[in-house]
Amino acid sequence: MTPEEKKRRKFIQQMSGLGVLGLVAAGGILGGPYLKAAEPRLRPPGAVPEEEYVGLCIKCGQCLQVCPYDSIKLEDIDGKAGVGMAYIEPRDRGCYLCEAFPCILACPSGALDHEHDSIEFIHMGIAVVHDPDGCLAKIGKPVPDSAIDRIYEHTKVITQEERRTHKVTIDPNDPEKVELQKALLQKLEKHRGEEVCTICADLCPFHPDHTLAIGMVDAKGGGMLPEIREACNGCGACVELCPVDVIKIIPRKTYADIYGGKVENA
């Protein structure tokens, strides 16, 4: 980062801080209890460390506007210090690691670091298999239709008819955003009724090789389980797609933190 960029980032952080103070003085929603988010949030790709992020995010929503998968939300009143700030709720819609990372490029304040706009720099958190005994692949149950149907409900760009019939067709004239989300649904459809669920591993968006982030392995006592691997960057796609919600993301943690013994799987 150049000295000019550092100076600009510091200026924006200071201006952001003045805006918060102004709200407090005016009797706004921010104050003592709102100094930090109620719970750790999964931030968009490229997010700087949390304390710096809170100071830099100007709540403009530009990252949300350009996200091809509609993965990014803006925090509401319950977010406390995060009100209006960008975050991802992976069970509702994970991040699918777009190669161009338009959210980072669109961020005007440096809350999403423009120097971290490629896959090797994206470290949002880490996935954890918190309920291995509930995994369909472990207990030998097929993928239920409801698990696939649920993702249609998450998909904003399709028509009501496509959502009702659970059938999408990619048109050559579809915008890229529509094409990408329809392609995800088409990939997911191939797993409908699958005898051994491998959705989390097969649809992991880590590129160029998703097996570096997650893979299916034999489980003790029979069946299979997803194995989280070192390249996992916590995008949350597996959390959204898991039929039985046995995977979660711990934001801001690394593979070493979780699987190296500093933080227990929970």
TrEMBL record:
One Pfam family named in its UniProt record: Fer4
Residue ranges constituting the 4Fe-4S ferredoxin-type domain according to the UniProt record: 47-77, 84-117, 224-252
Keywords, alphabetical: 4Fe-4S, Iron, Iron-sulfur, Metal-binding
InterPro entries assigned: 4Fe4S_Fe-S-bd (IPR017896), 4Fe4S_Fe_S_CS (IPR017900), PSI_iron-sulfur_center (IPR050157), TAT_signal (IPR006311)
Residues making up the signal peptide according to the UniProt record: none
Organism domain of life: Bacteria
Protein name, entry field: 4Fe-4S ferredoxin-type domain-containing protein
PROSITE patterns cross-referenced by the UniProt entry: 4FE4S_FER_1 (PS00198), 4FE4S_FER_2 (PS51379), TAT (PS51318)
